[in-house]
Design goal:
Layout lengths: L1 H23 L5 H29 L5 H19 L7 H28 L3 E2 L2 E2 H24 L4 H26 L11 H25 L24
Antiparallel strand pairs: 1-2
Helix pairs in contact: 1-2, 1-6, 2-3, 3-4, 3-5, 3-6, 4-5, 6-7
């Protein structure tokens, strides 16, 4: 069990480092693509071992750590699949992901309301994480349903789907580390403004890119210079 915990922590640390590199690297550039794939591998390593550890300690659906790991896995897998060419199993992946996200969202919201009814906490956990995972799960399931119905996504919708899923997975990892595992940070800098800074940075950056892609429809700094504006499907991109 100790070795699994070490792998879980190492995967999380590598996921955070590679995630921040990919988040701020030039979109579509070699550094972005390579750090993005490291992020995927590290995050899946962290979440798989995290789910095993959480299940061994107290039952899968009863632990907030298990739900966080499952939601992060779902976001990373579906976020990566969004920018990959469709395959024979793409529809099955989308349907399976939608069901996982829907069940996770409903259970998390139910536990959130239980926490509110119990005075704001459930088994020592504040209501906020339950509602956060619940809302994100239902939003993800809704997006999966739209993708299943349309068959595929292009342009801004495709990039936005990839963008928010990968960024939110990084956000969950950052919150888990800087808020949940802050004791590993040296005490002199273990103060809330500093701990919150990386989390806020991920959130602000995610919102900025969603605004750029979905509202402004701006390609500046995303596709190669001189690329025609009609290439709205962003075929060369692998955004984080």
């Amino acid at each position: 069990m100790q070795s699994m915990l070490i792998i879980h922590i190492a995967g999380g640390a590598l996921g955070l480092l590679s995630g921040f590199v990919a988040l701020y690297a030039a979109k579509g550039a070699t550094l972005h693509r390579r750090s993005g794939m490291v992020f995927v591998a590290a995050m899946l390593t962290m979440t798989v071992f995290g789910m095993v550890l959480a299940a061994a300690r107290g039952g899968p659906w009863g632990g907030v750590n298990f739900r966080a790991a499952l939601l992060t896995t779902y976001l990373v897998v579906t976020g990566l699949a969004t920018v990959r060419p469709p395959t024979f199993g793409s529809r099955s992946l989308n349907v399976g992901g939608m069901l996982v996200a829907l069940v996770l969202g409903l259970i998390s919201l139910t536990l959130g309301f239980d926490a509110v009814a119990g005075g704001g906490r459930l088994n020592g956990v504040p209501a906020f994480p339950f509602f956060l995972f619940g809302v994100v799960g239902l939003l993800g399931a809704g997006g999966d349903l739209r993708m299943i119905q349309s068959g595929s996504l292009r342009g801004a919708r495709r990039i936005a789907r990839h963008l928010w899923r990968m960024s939110f997975a990084l956000l969950i990892a950052a919150m888990s580390f800087f808020f949940g595992q802050a004791k590993v940070i040296p005490k002199p800098i273990r103060i809330m403004p500093l701990l919150a800074l990386p989390v806020v940075a991920v959130l602000v950056t995610m919102l900025y890119w969603l605004w750029r892609v979905r509202i402004r429809r701006s390609l500046r700094g995303i596709v190669s210079v001189g690329a025609p504006a009609s290439r709205s499907d962003f075929k060369t991109l692998e955004l984080l």
